[in-house]
Amino acid sequence: MVDRFDCIIIGGGIAGLQAAIQLGRYKHRILVIDAGDGRSTLCRSYHNILGYPEGISGQALRKAGQEHANRLGVEFVHGTAAKIENTGAGEFLVRMEKINTAFQGRRLLFATGVLDRFPPFPELYPCLGTSVYVCPDCDGYETSGKTTIVMGAGDAGANMALAITYWAEKVIYINHEGTPVSKQLLRKLTEKQIEMHEDRISSILADHSCFQGVQLKDGQRIYAEKGFLAFGGNLVRSQLAGELGVKLHHNRHILADSRTKMTNVKYVWAAGDIAAHSEQVTIAMGDGSQAAIWIHKSLVAD
Considering 178, 200, 230, which residue would you say is the last residue of a domain? Predict the structure, then answer.
């Protein structure tokens, strides 16, 4: 017999957890399916969240959210959704990867998020959110008055380097993959006195969570106090939504109504980084709450 829920949330990051809490407060039966490998599992400190001026880690936020949701009766399953079927009767059947289990839901919320493309240097991970960053709107402020290395590829890295000049005292751009940079951006880099290197990075210089710089393939060491990553080509986890017929933006983010967060497919919502024009923890929280409110309205209307 298949377990039946009022709403199944695919993704247990910040947006998914906030939606689960709100729906739990409506006393609906909610299931969160979480693979446990999203952005919020990696960030050691968010600095732009109301009430946390000293920062809070993604893991701490997730733990608090899970405990809060558990107290409201929300159920969790660790794993990856492999396939979702629209039964055509206002129900969705979610089949799991690797385990012979399926769940049925009256409503569906995608909060599957985005995975950043990082170079394969394990030394970077303890620094994420503390001295190495990916979002200038979130963490550009942390580079104020600092020498900052932007590790990236082509135009994506060049644009990040230019953005960081708003705060940083000195910006150095390492075009790690040697991807061509447009003439227009090269001119702007020169105008902003941004030092650019085309050589590949051989290793990251760091003392646990404290980024110190990079060593290039030619042996040169470049020192800095802060780092930014901008390689482009992030993985947008919208494949399952697309297979359901959900409309996607050209960059594969899910298109959802700005007011309700519902997609073009009836009874399917999207929230957080997976939705177009998001990619902020505080926006993900708002998206999750907003989607949950409208999911509740639709359940009550039925």
Answer: 230
Return the sign of the alpha-carbon dihedral for residues 120, 234, 23, 45. positive
Using one digit for the tens of pLDDT, what is the confidence trace for 256-271? Answer: 999 999 999 999 999 9
Query: Per the confidence metrics, is the pTM higher than 0.85?
Result: yes
- Displacement of CA 170 from its chain's centroid (Å): 27
pLDDT confidence tier of residue 4, bands split at 50, 70 and 90: very high
Q: Among 186, 210, 230, give the residue marking a domain's end.
A: 230
Question: How many domains is the chain partitioned into structurally?
Answer: 2
Cα 216 to Cα 121, 163, 171, 225: the distances in Å are 13, 23, 17, 17
Domain containing residue 107:
3-116+234-301
- Exposure letters 153-166 (e unless 16+ CB within 10 A, then b): bbbbbbbbbbbbbe
